[in-house]
Write a structure and sequence with these properties.
Elements (H helix, E strand, L loop, with lengths): L18 H11 L11 H14 L6 E3 L6 H9 L3 E4 L2 H8 L8 E3 L5 H9 L10 H10 L5
GO cellular component, one term: cytoplasm
Protein name: Ornithine decarboxylase
InterPro entries: De-COase2_N (IPR022644), Orn/DAP/Arg_de-COase (IPR000183), Orn_de-COase (IPR002433), PLP-binding_barrel (IPR029066)
C-alpha cells in the first residue's frame, strides 16, 4: 500500500486515549478551518476481516461517494474490497489505486460520457433502474453486464 501526501493527516494515538479526548484536544489546540474526523484504522481493518471470515462468499462493494478519503479507500483496496462508483471521477480515483476494473461496479443514472469511460477502462458490471437506462447502456456499451 502506498500512502502519498497523507502523513500530515495521520496521527498514531495511544490506545488509552478516547475518541472524545482526541477531538477535544484537536479543537482546543489547533485552528480548524476544514471538517475533520477521527477513526480507528485498526477497527476498519478488523471489521473487514471479520466480514470476510463470517461471510466469505459475499463480496461487498464499498460506495465511494459515502467516504472518498484516500486512506480509507487504500485500506479497503489492499483488503480486497470491491468498489461501487457513481462517476468518472470516482472510477478514476479507484483505478489510480491500482484496483483491477473487475472489482469496480458502476451505478445507474449515468451520463453517456461516464458509460464510455467505464467501457474504456473495461468496467463491465453495472446496474440500471429503468428501461430507458438499460437501452442507453446497451447502445453505448453493448457488452456491459
Amino acid at each position: 500500500m502506498r500512502i502519498c501526501g497523507l502523513e500530515e493527516q495521520i496521527h498514531v494515538i495511544d490506545n488509552q486515549v478516547t475518541v472524545e479526548e482526541i477531538i477535544k484536544d484537536v479543537v482546543k489546540t489547533k485552528e480548524i478551518l476544514d471538517p475533520f474526523y477521527v477513526f480507528d484504522v485498526g477497527e476498519l481493518v478488523n471489521k473487514v476481516i471479520k466480514w470476510q471470515q463470517t461471510l466469505p462468499r459475499i463480496k461487498p462493494f464499498y460506495s465511494v461517494k459515502c467516504n472518498d478519503n484516500s486512506l480509507v479507500l487504500e485500506i479497503l483496496a489492499v483488503l480486497g474490497i470491491n468498489f461501487n462508483c457513481t462517476s468518472k471521477g470516482e472510477i478514476k480515483q479507484i483505478l489510480d489505486l491500482g484496483v483491477n476494473s473487475s472489482r469496480i461496479f458502476s451505478t445507474p443514472a449515468k451520463i453517456a460520457l461516464h458509460i464510455k469511460y467505464a467501457k474504456s477502462t473495461c468496467i463491465n458490471l453495472t446496474k440500471f433502474d429503468s428501461k430507458r437506462e438499460l437501452f442507453k447502456i446497451k447502445s453505448l456499451y453493448p457488452s456491459c453486464k
